[in-house]
Amino acid sequence: MAALEARGIDCRYGSRLAVRGASLRAEAGTLTALLGPNGAGKSTLLRALGGIGRFTGSVLVDGVPIDRLSRREIARQVALVAQDPPADVPFTVYEAVLMGRAPHQGRLALEGRRDREVAESAMRDAEVELLAARPIDQLSGGERRRVFLARALAQEPRILLLDEPTAFLDLGHQAKVMERASALARRGLCVVAVLHDPNLAAAWADRAVLMREGEIVAQGAAGEVLDRSLLEELYGARLVCARGPAGEGPFFGLSAPSRS
Ligand SMILES: Nc1ncnc2c1ncn2[C@@H]1O[C@H](COP(=O)(O)OP(=O)(O)OP(=O)(O)O)[C@@H](O)[C@H]1O
Ligand SMILES: [Mg+2]
Fold this sequence. Notes:
This protein is of the alpha/beta class. 32% of the residues lie in helices and 27% in strands. Residues 42-43, 83, 163 line the site of magnesium ion (MG). Magnesium ion binds at residues 42-43, 83, 163.
């Protein structure tokens, strides 16, 4: 049984269908990359996978329909890091990360030692421990994204949904976030990440799902789906695809007109 399964998901905003008939399976222990042009419906589908927003069709978490689970039960299993984490949060980094523990605490209980340890370890993993005492509304865009990643890790979810986790991050932090996401998958989590860079997907994802105009147009092993002609069609852009001297890659780049 897949950790996460979507069957025939439709999402509407008013009368507009933003996601149409999306079906996918994501297994525990795998990292799935979700790619597609702006407006393709990636964030909308990812939120539906986390039980957020209105949709028809079914999302199953370990075979259980997500609409049969309470918000709190969902939050113990599924963590979603949104594309635009809120900026005007009146908390320090440590406080916000500790809030990730809420689904595991009793209704009136204060956090215990284990909650603090998990929050501190999540802050180390997302490299925000040095920011612990800083108010969130004073952080840079990339720092804030890492804080919300830490909060999701503190949730200790079995399913981690990441919407553009590498946006606004420098190359070093992009590599660290992807390394972390793939390490979590190797530890048994089911990770689904929206990515705009096929190179990150090719380097770290096990599976890839391509979306265009609300529909899933291809899905399968990353090595097969991340194909130059499929990606050219997906993005409507000319690409070059290369391999490193020892067969590393594939590496994709935009094919710009020669300037010589
Ligand atoms: N709150 C909303 N109300 C109305 N339409 C929306 C809303 N959110 C998204 N949409 C529309 O739904 C479609 C899918 O949006 P979505 O945010 O899922 O795309 P995306 O693939 O994540 O794009 P991006 O790569 O730009 O993040 C778009 O056409 C968008 O304009
Ligand atoms: Mg999006």
